Amino acid sequence: MTSTQKTKEPLALLKSLIALLLIIFCLWGSQWQYHRGVDRHARNAVIEERIAKSPIALNTVTSDLPNYEWQAVSVAGTFDTEKQILLRNRYNDGKYGYEVLTLFKSTDNKSFWVDRGWVQAGATATTPPVVTALPEGEVSITGRLRLDSSLPRGSFFALPGNGQGLVSELNAQSQLNTEKFYLDLLSGSDISLTPKVAAQVPELSDGPHMAYALQWIFFAGLVIYGRILIRRTR
Question: DSSP assignment of 128-143, as one string?
Fold first, then answer.
């Protein structure tokens, strides 16, 4: 074996080692994307199942709130019109507006926020939006149970993008301490309670994770092919 061959041998081993590490990384990336896709599909299936269920009484949801997330619940109580917040930067059909959230106190003394839906912004920055007046006295409402942890943050869900959950943000603004859930209002005992534009259910897409998983496998194949090509060139 010549000195040139001896020099090339460790270099070839180094190239093979780098190729092997790249293949392992690609396979890891494929597995990661695959499991993300499986988890997201399972999560979406749970949401769809709970949304389709008939409403239950809120007072029956005594513990383990995550198991009732997205479930429709019914409750009686009164709205506190003095505790109302308009969340900015909410859009509907490309129109700028606000999400209207009002404090609700149930007959069993639970205080929580109710998302009464979207309203369009006024004609100018100084023009307040038109918010439907609330009926006085005790009412009964039906809404979807939502948690601060209701799925990932971002435009896919109507949650703040600053790292805080919606309930935490509302309580910080109003200096209140409410229950750790809120409701997306669907309907009520008074016709005025039914939102003209209710809080939307997110589009339950499985996303591109499975395609990305196959893409990583393709990359691994390219590494193998490239290494064989280099060896043949030699």
Answer: PP--PPPPSS-EEEEE
**Is residue 67, in this structure, part of any structural domain at all?**
yes
> What range does the domain containing 95 cover?
48-193
- pLDDT, mean of residues 145-170: 54
Measuring CA to CA, which residue among 113, 116, 114, 112 is closest to residue 130?
116
Give me the amino acid identity at 63: S
- What's the confidence (pLDDT) of residue 163? 41
Length of the chain: 234
Are 112 and 171 contacting, i.e. CB atoms less than 8 angstroms apart?
no
pLDDT digits (tens, 9 = 90+) for 158-198: 333 344 566 766 777 667 778 888 999 999 999 999 999 88
Does 22 fall in a domain? no
Q: CB–CB of 151/199 below 8 Å? A: no
CB atoms within 10 A of CB 76: 15
Q: Say if 151 falls within a structural domain.
A: yes
Structurally, the chain folds into a number of domains equal to: 1
Q: Locate 28 and state its tokens.
A: 């890891």
Cβ pair 73, 58 in contact under 8 A: yes
Cα-based angle 167, 149, 70 (whole degrees, multiple of 5): 90
> Is residue 118 situated within a structural domain?
yes
The candidate with the shortest Cα–Cα distance to 133, out of 100, 159, 165, is: 100
Amino acid letter for position 23: I
CA distance readout (Å), 11 to 6, 19, 21, 24, 230: 9, 12, 15, 20, 12
